[in-house]
Design goal:
The chain is built from six helices and seven strands, in the order E-H-E-H-E-E-H-E-E-H-E-H-H. With about 200 residues, it is of the alpha/beta class. Helix 3 crosses helix 4. It starts with a strand and ends in a 12-residue tail after the last helix.
């Protein structure tokens, strides 16, 4: 299938974004150690995670006997506040703490994308600045009760209910979701993957 792309992620949002671009994602999610190194900058961390996910998926493909004739894409997204990575909430209590820290403040969302095809590799990173309105205790409690925050970096999903908290976004909406479309298409085009016709000349 010419539009096949291997995705080193189990994220339904990344899968949906790639499918909307005409690709047929084949999932190769692989577990890695996501511990940040001492003093590691947020941009360096997110890029390292994307690279390591790609390498782990390549190993998984080799174990399964997959030749990976089509591109393999990996990505990592983190939410950072005051240069500190917030991560995904451990539980509802932690989700409350994260949302309280974001309330009324601007934070950054970094997404790194890493693509490989054979020996070729390319990568890009995208940063978005997001500002939240002041959140009441009732809003936070109701949002946590919805279940949406519990599997998302920073404890919110901008494409879902969490979008009502966002007063300003500078950057990439799809990047905050987990896969910046513009950067992703450019990387895939450079690797010779079929991209939407309207993106070929960009």
């Amino acid at each position: 299938m010419p539009n096949t792309i291997y995705l080193a992620s189990a994220s339904p949002r990344r899968r949906e974004i790639l499918a909307s671009l005409g690709f047929q994602p084949v999932l190769l999610p692989a577990e890695i150690d996501e511990t940040a190194l001492p003093g590691e900058a947020v941009a360096d961390y997110v890029s390292r995670m994307a690279r390591q996910k790609n390498a782990a998926a390549r190993q998984l493909a080799a174990q399964r006997g997959l030749a990976l004739a089509q591109p393999l894409l990996s990505a990592d997204t983190v939410v950072a506040l005051d240069n500190a990575i917030l991560g995904k909430p451990r539980d509802a209590v932690h989700a409350r703490e994260l949302l309280e820290s974001l309330s009324g403040r601007e934070h950054q969302v970094w997404t790194a994308v890493y693509v490989s095809r054979g020996e070729q590799t390319l990568e890009a990173a995208q940063r978005s600045d997001v500002r939240f309105k002041e959140l009441s205790e009732q809003e936070i409690a109701a949002y946590i009760a919805s279940g949406e925050p519990l599997d998302k970096a920073g404890a919110y999903g901008i494409q879902g209910i969490g979008g009502v908290f966002v007063t300003h976004l500078s950057g990439s909406f799809s990047g905050v979701m987990g896969l910046p479309v513009f950067e992703t298409v450019q990387l895939l085009r450079q690797l010779g993957a079929p991209v939407p016709p309207f993106a070929e000349a960009t």
